[in-house]
Specification:
Layout (H helix, E strand, L loop, with lengths): L2 H21 L3 H7 L10 H25 L6 E4 L4 H13 L4 E4 L5 H9 L5 E5 L9 E3 L4 E10 L20 E5 L8 H11 L2 E4 L2 H9 L4 E6 H10 L4 E3 L5 E10 L5 H16 L6
Parallel strand pairs: 1-2, 6-7, 6-8
Antiparallel strand pairs: 3-10, 4-10, 5-8, 5-9, 5-10
């Protein structure tokens, strides 16, 4: 049951119980237990009304507290540095009646996966569901598609003609590319060739990529689309996202196999389905 719907039912229950207790004359002693002094209220009618209101508040706190109790604990994650993805992750957890907390972000993406593998975090967002990752992770249902795009300075964007990842080898520019992560099968051999030619400069995370794009020089960056939009919208330099996607894949939440059960993953899958059915999507 959605957390919001569950809370509405419990609010209605709290209201009914408050009316019953007031009718039976039981609110006065119970409210006294929580130190609500009668002497500060002059009118008996006002006193009764305020006791009902206060008692409803107490019942709401009692009943609504169990909404979060659907989850056995907090779930740890890493903030990727992309606002839209963080908002989506929190929407999923709120819908499931759970709470997400963020730990310090390691510099390199491979370290994020290591933290999940070791059970030091429970979940990562915007993950490509590769078969080899099933050894230590569990995937949610796909909730969006992610594209690999090229970002360039507005001053050179019209001169950059890239339709496929292999076209990066034809550029007389420095390519800013990820030091790790999956960007399609073509990326690794192209990355190796760019390194051999001395045309590659790597970044470890999105913040670092954004910083490199602010530096002077002729370069382009390879980024996933949500990170690209985030960087371009906050850039001091005029940047553009080129229109062609070099690679596309589904993205999922990935949960640690070490600390998260299959039943918990299904709870989040149900939350994702409800959000998508209501038209709530990432970004």
């Amino acid at each position: 049951m959605p957390a919001a719907h569950l809370l509405r039912r419990r609010l209605a229950l709290a209201n009914s119980v408050a009316k019953l207790f007031f009718a039976l004359g039981l609110i006065r002693p119970i409210s006294g237990l929580v130190l609500i002094p009668y002497t500060c209220i002059r009118s008996r009618v006002i006193a009764g009304f305020n006791e009902v209101v206060m008692f409803r508040v107490l019942l709401v706190l009692f009943f609504s507290a169990t909404v979060q109790a659907q989850c056995p604990r907090d779930y740890r994650s890493i903030d990727r540095g992309v606002v839209s993805e963080k908002v989506w992750l929190e929407q999923v957890f709120n819908e499931a009646g759970c709470r997400i907390v963020y730990v310090e972000r390691p510099k390199h993406y491979t370290d994020w996966l290591w933290e999940l593998k070791q059970g030091r975090i429970e979940v990562l967002s915007a993950i490509t569901p590769l078969p080899e990752r099933l050894e230590y992770g569990q995937f949610s249902i796909a909730y969006a598609q992610e594209s690999v795009v090229v970002v360039a300075s507005s001053s050179i964007a019209k001169t950059v003609h890239v339709k496929k990842i292999i076209d990066l080898l034809t550029l007389n520019l420095t390519v800013l590319g990820p030091s790790s992560g999956y960007y399609g099968q073509e990326w690794e051999p192209v990355k190796n060739e760019l390194q051999r030619k001395g045309s590659l400069k790597t970044y470890g995370n999105w913040s670092e990529a954004g910083g490199l794009l602010q530096e002077k020089g002729n370069h382009v960056a390879i980024l996933v689309d949500d990170a690209a939009r985030h960087i371009v919208s906050r850039s001091r330099q005029k940047l553009e996202i080129l229109p062609t996607a070099l690679y596309q894949s589904d993205v999922v939440l990935m949960f640690s196999r070490k600390t998260v059960t299959a039943a918990e993953v299904e709870q989040f899958n149900a939350a994702i389905k409800r959000l998508l059915q209501r038209g709530v999507k990432p970004g």
